[in-house]
Design brief:
The protein has one domain. The chain is mainly α. The chain is elongated.
Length: 257
């Protein structure tokens, strides 16, 4: 069996085990979708009378809100993936995998495949609810938005797994995630456009990669697929995915050396 086939087989074994765990306890899937759905149901109506006066490129509140919620789902949902890994480490699962001849990268890739598929299901649910509530969007733009969500979700899940194996403690990991996620949420324009903020706040947000990803998904939903925002958002999504994969792989290899 060549190395490529072996890697795919080993990743598939890890993936199937992770999926079985999710099916036995689907609570995390439901919890992951609840936050953006609540924002959609409760914040969307508040945004309706205001969105026309924003510089958003659309007069539809849900066409503005849903792309941001997709990126939020990719970030927040995936960043909590590592909590399950801490439980596996505590139960000795990671140590048991360590003594097998499995490729160390396959241990991460199998888990990331589970996280990305879970995120895809959640993203589809969010988009369908948005369409049911009156969202308008081009089909190609929606597909692009979901793809960017999966890419950034994979990046955040890889980083979460790396952070989990580094801290090995939910008590340490939770505040670290909160410290990182709060400024990301506020400075990425997920809920409100950054044009509402003062100049100094907009200047800070220019250094926030997730802002460009949010803008790219919004332009895609509006049907503008050839804008600079789509280009830069896609570039940042790929860069963050590469960095997340590198950190996650390096951590798994170091932990299992």
């Amino acid at each position: 069996m060549n190395a490529g086939t072996s890697f795919v087989r080993e990743s598939s074994i890890v993936f199937r085990r992770q999926i079985r765990m999710n099916l036995r306890n689907p609570a995390w899937v439901l919890i992951g979708i609840m936050q953006p759905v609540l924002y959609l149901l409760l914040f969307g109506p508040l945004l309706k009378p205001l969105v026309a006066s924003f510089d958003t490129g659309t007069d539809n509140a849900y066409t503005f809100l849903v792309p941001g919620l997709l990126v939020q789902l990719g970030m927040f949902g995936a960043f909590f993936a590592g909590f399950g890994l801490i439980g596996e480490w505590r139960e000795g699962v990671i140590e048991a995998e360590r003594v097998t001849p499995a490729n160390r990268s396959a241990l991460l890739v199998g888990r990331l495949a589970r996280d990305v598929i879970q995120l895809f299901v959640q993203a589809v649910i969010l988009v369908v609810l948005g369409l049911a509530m009156g969202m308008r969007g081009s089909f190609a733009g929606i597909v692009l938005g979901v793809l960017l969500t999966l890419v950034i979700g994979g990046a955040c899940a890889a980083a979460s797994n790396a952070l989990a194996l580094t801290t090995k403690s939910e008590d340490v990991m939770a505040p670290v995630i909160n410290i990182v996620m709060m400024p990301v949420l506020l400075l990425s324009g997920i809920l409100l456009p950054m044009t509402l903020g003062p100049g100094w706040l907009r200047n800070i947000s220019d250094f926030m990669p997730f802002r460009y990803i949010v803008d790219a998904v919004r332009d895609g939903f509006a049907g503008d697929l050839a804008t600079s925002s789509v280009l830069w958002g896609s570039v940042w999504a790929v860069v963050l995915a590469a960095l997340g994969a590198w950190w996650g792989t390096a951590t798994f290899r170091r932990e299992n050396a």
